[in-house]
Amino acid sequence: MILSVLSSPALVSGLMVAQDKNSVHSVMFPILVFRDTLGLLLLLGLDVSAMMFPVVHIGDIDVSFLFVVMMFHIQIAEICEEVLRYLPVSGIIGLILWWEMFFILDNETIPLLPTQRNTTSLRYTVYAGKVRSWTNLETLGNLLYTYYFVWFLLPSLILLVAMIGAIVLTMHRTTKVKRQDIFRRNAIDFRRTIMRRTTDPLTIY
Amino acid sequence: LWILAPILTLVLGITIGVLVIVWLEREISAGLQQRIGPEYAGPLGVLQALADGTKLLFKENLFPSRGDTRLFSIGPAIAVVSTLLSYSVIPFAYRFVLSDLSMGVFLWIAISSIVPIGLLMSGYGSNNKYSFLGGLRAAAQSISYEIPLTLCVLSISLLSNSSSTVDIVEAQSKYGFWGWNLWRQPIGFIIFLISSLAECERLPFDLPEAEEELVAGYQTEYSGIKFGLFYVASYLNLLVSSLFVTVLYLGGWNIFIPVFGITIGIFSTLVKTYLFLFISITTRWTLPRLRMDQLLNLGWKFLLPISLGNLLLTTSSQLLSL
User: Fold this and answer.
1) For this protein, what is the EC number (chain A) (predicted)?
2) Do B146 and A59 touch (CB under 8 A)?
3) First to last CA, chain A
């Protein structure tokens, strides 16, 4: 029951992302999608991946999208034009994604669902887990840092390149901007900066 | 269904805690500024927070006419709800925690990443350039200080071999007073203090909600109980940050003698929380505000490398001692 409570808003919000004319709303709906998939992941028992969702997807990706959408002046009037013009290409893309979805769902070797499980009773304790069970984090770390560490380091290098690229692209005219040197600022002595002169009493006003 | 009783107790405790913090802030700031604090509402002004809340309830609830009404209304709610969710993993005494997740501390990090969304929504929904800018700045500040926070928490998890809050506190109980993570990670403690102050948007990182600049930032167009929600969200965030400081660094419910009961545990947790609250309230009324670029400078160029170095030190010390 909880599955349907969580998955139907996910699907509906996903549809609304593409449908909503207001671009800010269509970036807010992914938040709902992420929350529902978070719940679904928690139901599957993947706590670490579920916690990655708010941190990475909602907190960073969605915030970046919001920054972009909110700061650009997107004309809403242009979006209300005929939508049917886009149907051929978008229909093909939609069909491809639909086919991919069925390709995944039909996969017989889903390793997540334990097939030996007694699904009728709600209290099923795995006694082997009580002796020494690996948390999700430990299994992830075990695999990721020992066997697949090259693949782990490679995305970090790509991320570094992306960050430096973004900074380089937006940095311009660094020579003409006056920066403050904080240590020099703090070391200013007023006795050497303010010049004392006697003022002419007739020219005060 | 019986889970509702502990949840309600916790929520009641949190509400009373927020009221106490509001009163504490008034009293401590009054002491710092050498004046008398609240004295009219209740004995010693204890009911001041309730009086504030009641006043906000009776104010007119304004909506900006051409702003986005739905986003405007939901914005403060998201900020408050996310902060309240992270109270479920704080242990107040031995196993006296609402949910003993195996990655409890990670839950707080994850949920504090949802708060910028609420700020952005409320800044955008008010039809006001300046509150929009304030919302953008608040979100930028919030996401930039998450990273040193996460790295410090990661170092703590390395030291305690677990991300569960109960395990972290139990790992600090070995040597009494000297087993606290404060002594094992002094740099991390300072970074965590600064980053959590920045996450709560308290001074000296007050720019999004400063009264003098940007006219209260993203909270400008809010009145009545919605502003009350933002007000409460700020103090809730402060309380959860200080509770996490005690759990992660100051040893949770451990004091010098072995703890024999739950009440002593709760009491010691609250005393340590009060210490951090005192530090943050004193900082608020002592230090001047940082400018936005200085703020982001501090987060990315200063705290992030230091917290990375802290993580490196922790990992190398763990490797060497194994």
Assistant:
1) 7.1.1.2
2) yes
3) 83
Contact B136 A62 (CB under 8 A): no
- Please, where are the H alpha helices in B33-68? 48-57
* Complex ipTM: 0.77
Task: Say what angle helices B104-112 and B129-160 make with each other, to 10 degrees.
Answer: 170
- Best probe of the B interface among A66, A73, A164, by most B CBs < 10 A, is A66
Residue A131 banded pLDDT, cuts 50, 70, 90: low
Nearest CA in chain B to A137: B103
Q: Which run of H or of E encompasses B205?
A: none
Residues of A in Cβ contact (< 8 Å) with B110: 51-55, 59
Mean pLDDT of B33-52: 78
- For residue A62, list chain B residues with Cβ-Cβ distance below 8 A: 117
Q: Which of A52, A53, A63 sits opposite B116 (nearest CB)?
A: A63
| Residue entry with tokens 């305690």 | B160
CB A70 within 8 A of CB B129: no
Per the CB < 8 A criterion, the answer to whether B256 and B177 are in contact is yes
Q: Residue A161: enclosing H or E segment and its boundaries?
A: helix A149-170
Q: Does A59 touch chain B (CB under 8 A)?
A: yes
pLDDT beyond 70 at A76: no
Query: Does the distance separating the beta carbons of A55 and B113 come in below 8 Å?
Result: yes
Which of B106, B142, B304 should be substituted to probe chain A, the one whose Cβ sees the most A Cβ atoms within 10 Å? B106
How far apart CA B38 and CA B264 sit, in angstroms, is: 30
Chain A residues in contact with B101 (beta carbon < 8 A): 47
Which residues lie below 8 Å from residue A28, measured CB to CB, with a gap of 6+? A66, B71, B121
Is pLDDT above 60 for A109? no
The tokens describing B248, both together, are 């992660």
Tell me if B296 sits within 8 A of B177, measured CB to CB.
Answer: no
User: What b/e string do you get for B39-57 counting C-beta neighbours within 10 Å, with b at 16 or more?
Assistant: eebeeebebbbeebbeebe
CB proximity A60 to B under 8 Å: yes
DSSP A120: S
CA distance A142 to A1: 34
**Mean pLDDT to the nearest integer, B244-263:** 77
Give yes or no for a cis peptide into A114 (omega within 30° of 0).
no
Model pLDDT for residues B226-242, shown as the tens digit of each residue: 888 888 888 888 899 89
Query: Rounded distance, CA B44 to CA B47, Å?
Result: 8
